[in-house]
Design brief:
There is one protein chain. The chain is of the alpha/beta class. It folds into 3 domains: 70 residues, Arc Repressor Mutant, subunit A; 102 residues, Periplasmic binding protein-like II (D-Maltodextrin-Binding Protein, domain 2); 95 residues, Periplasmic binding protein-like II (D-Maltodextrin-Binding Protein, domain 2). It is built from 10 helices and 14 strands. The chain is globular and about 60 Å long.
C-alpha cells in the first residue's frame, strides 16, 4: 500500500476538500484525485463521496482511517529509528492517556532527558483502548492507561488512582451544598470522557445524550465558566482551578464516584528490554513521594 496514497487519504479525511489537500501536500488537485482513485482501486471500496468540491468519508473510509494513521506513523518511526541508530542506544515509543500526561509526565519528562540521555523517547497521547491495542501489536513499548492488561506476557503495575469530582464554574452556586447521585441525570452535563462505561450507565439512562461531548476531557474547562454547566473531572487535573476559585466541586450526598484508575504497562520480553527497564526505573524513581516532594 503506497505511503503517499495513505498520506493523501489522511489529509483529505481531515479537511474534506480536494483543493485544500492539494495545497497542503504541494501537489496538483489531479494528483490528489489519482492517488485516491488508486487507493480505492486497490481496496475495492469507495472511500469518499464527492459532491460540489467537497467530500465525505464512506463507511469504508472510516474503517481505514485508524489503520492508515498507524501505517504512516510506523513509517515515520522507522525513518527516525534508522536516523537515530548511531546516536541513541534505544528509541522508545511511549503511549499515555491525556490525563496522566497532563497531571504527571509533562512535569517530569525534562528530568528523563537528563537521567536517560541515551534514550530517544517518542511520547504519543491516546485513549486507553488505543494504547492497549498498540501494546498488543508491538507498536508501543510502554503504556500509561486507565484500564489494566491481563496477560502473562505483560507487566501491569497499578499506579495511584485519582478521585473523580463533579465540578462546575464558580459562578454556579445552585448545588454548592451538595447533590444526590440520582439527580445528576437532570443536570446540563458536558461529557468529558473520564467516566468508564459502567459508571456512565449507573448515572444516566440508556441512549442519554449530552449537549457537548469532548473526548479530551481537559478541553471542556472553558465551557464551564458561563451558565449552569457541570462535568466530571479527576481531582489532580483541576487542583489549580479549585484552589483559585475558578471551579467549584459539588459534594455528592450519600455516595461517591468510582476513582479514576491508572496503570503502567510494558512487555516482559522485548528487543528493547534494557532501554524499557531503564526508562521505567527512571519513572518509578520520579514518581516516589520523596522525589515528587522535592
Amino acid at each position: 500500500m503506497n505511503i503517499d496514497y495513505l498520506k493523501t487519504f489522511l489529509s483529505l479525511a481531515d479537511n474534506g476538500s480536494f483543493t485544500k489537500t492539494a495545497q497542503a501536500l504541494f501537489v496538483s488537485q489531479s494528483t490528489v484525485s489519482i492517488r485516491i482513485k488508486e487507493l480505492e482501486k486497490e481496496l475495492g471500496k469507495e472511500l469518499f463521496r464527492r459532491s460540489y468540491g467537497a467530500c465525505e468519508m464512506t463507511m469504508a473510509g472510516h474503517a481505514l482511517l485508524d489503520y492508515a494513521k498507524q501505517i504512516v506513523e510506523l513509517e515515520a518511526c522507522a525513518m527516525k529509528q534508522v536516523g537515530m541508530s548511531s546516536t541513541f542506544s534505544d528509541h522508545l515509543q511511549v503511549g499515555s492517556v491525556f490525563y496522566y500526561y497532563d497531571s504527571f509526565l509533562a512535569h517530569h519528562l525534562e528530568d528523563s532527558l537528563v537521567q536517560c540521555p541515551n534514550l530517544a523517547v517518542r511520547m504519543i497521547l491516546l485513549h486507553s483502548r488505543n494504547i492497549l491495542q498498540r501494546l498488543k501489536a508491538d507498536q508501543l513499548d510502554v503504556g500509561f492507561t486507565h484500564h489494566p492488561l491481563d496477560s502473562p506476557e505483560y507487566i501491569c503495575n497499578a499506579l495511584p488512582s485519582d478521585s473523580m469530582l463533579l465540578v462546575t464554574g464558580a459562578q454556579n452556586r445552585i448545588h454548592a451544598q451538595g447533590l444526590c447521585i440520582q439527580d445528576i441525570k437532570h443536570l446540563p452535563i458536558l461529557y468529558s470522557s473520564y467516566l468508564d462505561k459502567t459508571t456512565e450507565h449507573w448515572l444516566f439512562p440508556a441512549q442519554h445524550h449530552f449537549p457537548l461531548d469532548i473526548d479530551v476531557g481537559v478541553k471542556i474547562l472553558p465551557f464551564l465558566t458561563r451558565g449552569e454547566r457541570y462535568t466530571f473531572l479527576p481531582q489532580k487535573l483541576v487542583e489549580r482551578e479549585l484552589a483559585s476559585g475558578t471551579l467549584l466541586s459539588v459534594p455528592l450526598l450519600g455516595e461517591s464516584l468510582p476513582p479514576l484508575d491508572n496503570y503502567l504497562i510494558y512487555k516482559k520480553e522485548s528487543k528493547k528490554k534494557e532501554g524499557i527497564e531503564q526508562w521505567v526505573h527512571w519513572f518509578q524513581a520520579a514518581s516516589t513521594p520523596s522525589t515528587v516532594a522535592s
